[in-house]
Amino acid sequence: MAGAVRPRSADILVDEIIRKISRGEYLDGARIGSEQDLIDHFGLSRAVVREGLRILEREGLVTVKPGPTGGIFSRVPDVRPLSRLLDVYGSIHDVTMDDLIEARMELEVLTARLAAERATEDDIKRLEQHDADWKRLVAEGDTEGAARANVGFHVSLAASAHNPVFVVFMDALEGLVYETALEPQYPVRLLDYVVYSHQYVLDAVRRRDVREAADLMRKHLQIFRPNAWDKSRRAGAVLAVRPVDVGNDMEPETS
């Protein structure tokens, strides 16, 4: 067909390996073969096969091990290529911290709502464990441990929505989630709410209260938003929008 673009030879190799991984024909850690096996199978030159393998390695889809017991081994892809892409895209297109915070907020409000609809008992048990770890580590003054527990709670909540796309994006935003809980600075009147805000969201998920879970997640993230702003300001970043003033409406319900 006129105007059709023929794929490069290396793309043929890359596309075939990706198809086999996505279909489950190559499980994580499975030996695909040797470089010579791929040369023979695809009828490609050594240089082209090596180019294809470099692409697959860069995307985290294969590991190449040298030596007589080595070869090419498949890998289940993780979120690192997406995280790198977001970093590059953000640098080129002047994505601000507030852009990321806003995107995270809307994503997590949605996942909280869906988790209230879809969470299984196992999901709730995982959330309970992360919440217990968070409270304990905050009480112990372990800011790094508490920040990790915070990440665990939010990623597990995304998983409880049972849509794998949300988990991928939450994994990509993991650094932001960690930083907002690391060495936090909050008004004293909000400290109690910060410690128990995961529990409030979790309670709404247990009750299957879709609206309340979403509302409580939004309140929770609005508290963390100024902390992310402050960290970015101290790092010298330029943000486009001032942080939201959480105001008295951030206080938990007592009724």
Give a summary of the structure in a few sentences.
The chain has 255 residues and is mostly helical.
Q: Biggest sheet, strands in spatial order? A: 1-3-2
Low-confidence stretches: 1-6, 235-255
| Helix and strand run | HEHHEEHHHHHHHH
Straight-line N-to-C gap? 70 Å
In terms of DSSP E residues, the strand content is: under 5%
Number of strands: 3
Descriptive report:
It is a single chain. With 255 residues, the chain is mainly alpha-helical. Helix content is 65%, strand content 4%. A hairpin with a 5-residue loop joins strand 2 and strand 3 (71-74). The longest helix is centred in the last third of the chain and has 25 residues, at 210-234. The protein is elongated, with a radius of gyration of 23 Å. Residues 1-6 and 235-255 have low confidence and may be disordered.
How are the SSEs placed, and which strands pair?
Layout (H helix, E strand, L loop, with lengths): L8 H14 L8 E3 L1 H8 L3 H13 L3 E4 L5 E4 L5 H13 L4 H22 L2 H20 L2 H18 L3 H9 L1 H8 L9 H16 L3 H25 L21
Antiparallel strand pairs: 1-3, 2-3
Which features characterize this protein?
single chain, 255 residues, mainly alpha, three-stranded antiparallel β-sheet, 11 helices, elongated, disordered N terminus, disordered C terminus
